[in-house]
Amino acid sequence: xxxxxxxxxxxxxxxxxxxxxxxxxxxxxxxxxxxxxxxxxxxxxxxxxxxxxxxxxxxxxxxxxxxxxxxxxxxxxxxxxxxxxxxxxxxxxxxxxxxxxxxxxxxxxxxxxxx
Length: 115
Prior knowledge:
Blueprint: H1 2-7, H2 25-37, E1 47-51, E2 55-62, E3 65-71, E4 76-83, E5 88-95, H3 99-110
Antiparallel strand pairs: 1-2, 2-3, 3-4, 4-5
């Protein structure tokens, strides 16, 4: 997955045809370091989604259960966890170096999800 994130660095200005800037190289570097800090096989591969402000997010979807980790800056991740059938939603920010928080969120998503 690190290679897929690093590939975002090749996106040029206007990559979305709406004037989006290139993806911030410092965010890419922080995210690659973050990904390499996670335990192997913690979850199936998320979608890597570039975003128009020059950042990106990782997305996991399974039915009505969603986890999004948006790398807002080189130092922060905004998350959204949502489970529609239980009317549960939480959104917040945590430091990119808080691997334990990320593991908790990913384990929440993977609980009850068949690989």
